[in-house]
Design goal:
It is built from 16 helices and twelve strands. With about 475 residues, it is of the alpha+beta class. Among the domains are: about 170 residues, no CATH class; about 120 residues, no CATH class. The strands form four sheets. Strands 2, 6, 7, 8, 9 and 10 form a six-stranded antiparallel beta sheet that branches. It has a two-stranded antiparallel ribbon with strand order 1-3. Helix 10 runs antiparallel to helix 12 and helix 14 runs antiparallel to helix 15. The two termini are about 35 Å apart. The protein binds adenosine monophosphate (AMP) and magnesium ion (MG).
């Protein structure tokens, strides 16, 4: 086969503490469901001459490409606040692929069978959740939000047992790396300083080579992650994305969004929105996401203490100061992001009030988050009496006045169009696409995927995808899909 794999595996060369050597467990009757040709191109991989049957074998792990060295990675994590030793319980990293531009990508199979980290799990995944990760991660990428990508999904030809029998599947995930906050927690919990230092150096070499010469690598790495993660969560807030399970094992050091389990997009604006069925207390609610980001970063900082300074008190002070800076960084970024969403140039003292007044109005009136910004951009929507409301009209007047400050040639619309999506993966549309795909018809899924590829473009065929779900008494719920 001349696919173009160029494996250069470095994580698998780390000591036994970091991973388990393991092959994907073969599956009975693999069948390719979807292949991301665009992503393949970006990776300089060419699958065009490979038969459907061979693709199925390849993306199920029944045959491994030459040069791969498969491992399950060890990590720990705070899951809903509780510390646990975890690791890839249903995934294997088959290798690190280099693109022609020498960019390094982890190629990982998710749902590939049991590993020594599986605990009580079966090591497998169901088709619905893997297709869900595929469509939402690709939508996030198109929204210009850092994320892991999805290269392929195969059905395994085996059933998995959840609360019912479901078709099994394997997702091929592509990531800058799978190093997580939880990876640092795992190594730190082993209390081996040498290995912790190895991990810091490995991470810096891989993701932040500009820190190679830094005088305090651990502290600088902490500061970089604070920067990356504050940027990421502001992006999530911008589009109304709710990750749903922001455990420390699901926070990547690369700054990419990772692990699409119970995530979903907010429809009507309510800062307390939670979709995940297991998030009983709203720990990972929309508005809590920045606070949890900070909490996770504090757990990251704790791992690094022994490397930040030999004197523990000094180290704790340096790390605490860094973490306490998070609010400032986040707040500044969030305010600027909201200014962009409203097309405001420059900074005016009352901007924050203008923004918060709109959000309050949206909350009280259950206005759709995405569509309210579309309305401000003069995008055609379905019937919407809500925007005739007097309070909104009063707010509009103030907004118009503010927009016209520092605004040359109506440039505000351009700014708004670059940050306000017109189509997002609305929950009811995702469910529709997954339902028909699970029944064997992938067309609707593919059509939706195509629409989600250009979320900022106002096209003629998207009205059906803009409307929020009809309001029912039933609250939309998501599940981990484990
Ligand atoms: P997640 O909720 O996907 O972030 O997974 C949390 C942990 O549970 C990770 O260690 C996973 O590898 C593991 N896990 C999730 N589902 C399964 C499964 N079906 N079998 C074995 N391990 C699993
Ligand atoms: Mg996870």
């Amino acid at each position: 086969m001349t696919i173009g794999w160029h494996f250069d595996n470095t994580y698998s060369k780390l000591s036994e503490t970091f991973k388990e050597e393991i092959k994907p467990i073969p599956v009975k009757n693999p069948e390719l469901v979807i292949l991301n040709e665009q992503l393949a191109k970006e990776l300089n991989l060419d699958f065009s001459n490979i038969s459907q049957q061979d693709l199925s074998k390849l993306f199920s792990g029944n045959i491994l490409p030459e040069g791969s060295h498969s491992i399950a990675q060890a990590y720990a994590g705070h899951q809903f606040g509780h510390f646990t030793m975890l690791g890839d319980g249903r995934a294997v990293l088959i290798g690190e692929h280099l693109s022609n531009k020498n960019q390094r990508f982890d190629i990982q199979f998710k749902g590939s069978g049991r590993t020594s980290f599986s605990r009580r799990g079966d090591g497998r995944a169901a088709l619905g959740p893997m297709l869900r990760e595929y469509i939402i991660s690709e939508a996030m990428h198109a929204l210009n939000i850092p994320t892991t990508r999805s290269l392929a999904v195969v059905k395994t030809g085996e059933n998995v047992i959840r609360d019912q029998f479901l078709p099994g599947a394997i997702l091929t995930r592509v990531a800058a790396s799978h190093i997580r906050v939880g990876t640092f927690q795992y190594i730190a919990a082993k209390q081996n300083l040498e290995e912790l230092e190895i991990l810091v150096n490995f991470t810096i070499d891989r993701h932040y080579p500009n820190l190679q010469k830094s005088k305090n690598k651990a502290l600088d790495l902490l500061n970089v992650l604070i920067d990356k993660q504050s940027e990421l969560v502001v992006n999530w807030m911008r589009v109304g994305f709710i990750h749903g399970v922001m455990n420390t094992d699901n926070m990547a050091i690369s700054g990419e969004t990772i692990d699409y389990g119970p995530c979903a997009f907010m429809d009507h604006y309510d800062p307390q929105t939670v979709f995940s069925s297991i998030d009983e207390y709203g720990r990972y609610a929309y508005d809590n996401q920045p606070k949890i980001t900070k909490w996770n970063l504090a757990r990251f900082a704790e791992c690094l203490i022994p490397l930040i300074d030999k004197d523990e008190e000094t180290a704790v002070k340096l790390a605490t100061d860094a973490i306490n800076n998070f609010e400032n960084i986040y707040e500044t970024r969030w305010l600027n992001m909201m200014r962009d969403k409203l097309g405001l140039f420059g900074e005016v003292k009352n901007d924050k009030k203008l923004i918060l007044d709109l959000l309050d109005w949206m909350k009280i009136n259950k206005a759709d988050f995405t569509n309210t910004f579309c309305y401000l951009m003069n995008i055609k929507l379905g019937k919407n009496k809500i925007y005739l409301n007097q309070e909104f009209t009063n707010w509009l007047e103030l907004w118009h006045k503010r927009v016209n400050l520092n605004n040359l040639n109506n440039k505000h619309l351009e700014l708004m169009k670059s940050v306000n999506p017109i189509v997002i993966p609305r929950n009811h549309k995702v469910e529709e696409a997954l339902k028909t795909a699970s029944e064997g018809n992938i067309k609707r899924f593919n059509d939706f995927l195509k629409i989600l590829q250009t979320p900022y473009e106002n096209k003629s065929n998207i009205l059906d995808f803009q409307n929020p779900a009809p309001i029912t008494n039933e609250k939309y719920q998501t599940f981990c899909g484990t």
